[in-house]
Amino acid sequence: MRICICGGGNLGHVTAGMMALHGENEVAILTRRPEKWATTIGILENGKQTDAHLALVTSQAREAIPQADIVMLCLPGFAIGEELQRIKPWLSPQTAVGAVFCSTGFFFEAHRLLPPATPLFGFQRVPYISRIVDYGRQAELKGRKRQLVMAVENIPQAEAFRHSMAAALDTPIRLAGSFYEVSLSNSNPLLHPARLYTLFKDWHEGVFFPHNPQFYGEWTVEASELYIAMDGEFQALLGMLPIAKGSIPSVLEYYESKDAGSLTEKISHIPAFKGILSPMLQRAEGFIPDFTSRYFTEDFPFGMRFIVETAHSHHCPIPTIERTFEWGMEKVTLPHPTCGGRD
């Protein structure tokens, strides 16, 4: 397959490298900083590096998109609409357009911006936990999903496409029954806001934290209680949608926990999340929240928002989610789409 990855961030690095390594794929990168990339990218996993060759690295959509069989966005939510508009003139009717994860609005934006017959695909969760080591040259694959869930639309040979993508990502894939199954998530769009709200809800100007706590490693029971409460409302919404029962497991099921205490223990000891700090800025007096962090700019306006809008359109009450969402939207500082959007 000829694959174009849009975005040169953590996920873009590792996803491009993995898809270039597995199967007979030609992988191109569409990024605003092509001059910083090498034609070979090293992927570190468990201390071992494997080098992957990239067929093309460019900032020009006209160079990468027309040749692609598959275009996959590895971008933050605020950049998806702009990128779809940028690549739209160069797409052929047969090119499949997708996103490495969809809970920040990919399908909603694609339905709005692209022709109705455009082949679309997208994943429920990211395939890898990724970290750039040396921009454009080396990245670390810190963790993998055991299985991915992918929704497809307007792709006639869906099973063949699933098989090809599973081989390219080196991960088993299950097909979803509806785009809602991958677009509405109780992962980051509820997980992150639960922690952010309980950590910062009482903060105001003039208050400084003495240290920056680990986001996951110092996860609290209060955050787990909020997460579970919001998930209960989320599960009620799923019951109103064309989604197979159990296709999006509850938070407690997914984390194999029985209550807030055991969930806290589980989240705080996930090895891949060890050492990740909270979104804060250091000042002379201490630490303050960073409302420009992707924890805010992704998960409130481009994660929770779609849950809230879908709940409203189906007249499903979600008071806990709404309260948390409204708090976050009052705090968040959104970047302009062209400010780092493609990386």
Order of strands in the sheet with the most strands?
Answer: 5-2-1-6-7-8-11-12
Structural class: alpha/beta
Query: What is the average per-residue confidence, as pLDDT, rounded to a whole number?
Result: 94
Distance between the termini: 23 Å
Q: Tell me roughly what share of residues is in helical segments.
A: 25-40%
How many DSSP E strands?
14
Largest pleated sheet? 8 strands, mixed
Order of helices and strands: EHEEEEHEHEHEEEEHEHHHHHEEHHH
- The helix count comes to 13
What best-fitting shape do the alpha-carbon axes yield?
Answer: globular
Low-confidence stretches: 337-342
Which range does the strand content fall in?
15-25%
Using the CA coordinates, give the radius of gyration.
Answer: 20 Å
What is the strand and helix layout of this fold?
Blueprint: E1 2-6, H1 10-21, E2 26-30, E3 40-45, E4 48-53, E5 56-58, H2 61-64, E6 70-73, H3 77-87, E7 96-99, H4 106-113, E8 120-123, E9 128-134, E10 138-144, E11 148-153, H5 158-169, E12 173-175, H6 180-183, H7 188-200, H8 221-238, H9 251-254, H10 260-267, E13 280-283, E14 286-289, H11 294-297, H12 300-313, H13 319-331
Parallel strand pairs: 1-2, 1-6, 2-5, 3-10, 6-7, 7-8, 11-12
Antiparallel strand pairs: 3-4, 8-11, 9-10, 13-14
